[in-house]
Amino acid sequence: MPWVLLVIAGLFEVVWAFSMKQSEGFTRLWPSVVTIVAMLISFYLLSLSMKTLPLGTAYVIWTGIGAVGSFLLGVFFLGEPATALRMLAAILIVSGLLLLKFATP
């Protein structure tokens, strides 16, 4: 169950990062509200997963999901470049996350 909570926490991190971009520096109300609510949910679920998982593992997985998820949203919805080097970087992050997951008891 802690892994499920951690993945959901990471997905909420993607939500708050994307909505923060949409809030335009917290000048738009609803994207700002979504940002704050998603942050609270993400932090809460991360804290629950940390009851069982090691700090380093939980935090790295959480930030990795957020980083790669935000990168993909930027590419697919915001028109950010998907160069070969950027894609390789995302693949390496995911590879590191998988290795860390399998290395954690």
From TrEMBL:
<dbReference type="InterPro" id="IPR045324">
    <property type="entry name" value="Small_multidrug_res"/>
</dbReference>
<keyword id="KW-0812">Transmembrane</keyword>
<keyword id="KW-1003">Cell membrane</keyword>
<keyword id="KW-1133">Transmembrane helix</keyword>
<feature type="transmembrane region" description="Helical">
    <location>
        <begin position="84"/>
        <end position="103"/>
    </location>
</feature>
<keyword id="KW-0472">Membrane</keyword>
<feature type="transmembrane region" description="Helical">
    <location>
        <begin position="27"/>
        <end position="46"/>
    </location>
</feature>
<dbReference type="InterPro" id="IPR000390">
    <property type="entry name" value="Small_drug/metabolite_transptr"/>
</dbReference>
<dbReference type="GO" id="GO:1990961">
    <property type="term" value="P:xenobiotic detoxification by transmembrane export across the plasma membrane"/>
</dbReference>
<protein>
    <recommendedName>
        <fullName>Guanidinium exporter</fullName>
    </recommendedName>
</protein>
<dbReference type="Pfam" id="PF00893">
    <property type="entry name" value="Multi_Drug_Res"/>
</dbReference>
<dbReference type="GO" id="GO:0005886">
    <property type="term" value="C:plasma membrane"/>
</dbReference>
<feature type="transmembrane region" description="Helical">
    <location>
        <begin position="58"/>
        <end position="78"/>
    </location>
</feature>
<keyword id="KW-0813">Transport</keyword>
<comment type="similarity">
    <text>Belongs to the drug/metabolite transporter (DMT) superfamily. Small multidrug resistance (SMR) (TC 2.A.7.1) family. Gdx/SugE subfamily.</text>
</comment>
<dbReference type="GO" id="GO:0022857">
    <property type="term" value="F:transmembrane transporter activity"/>
</dbReference>
<dbReference type="InterPro" id="IPR037185">
    <property type="entry name" value="EmrE-like"/>
</dbReference>
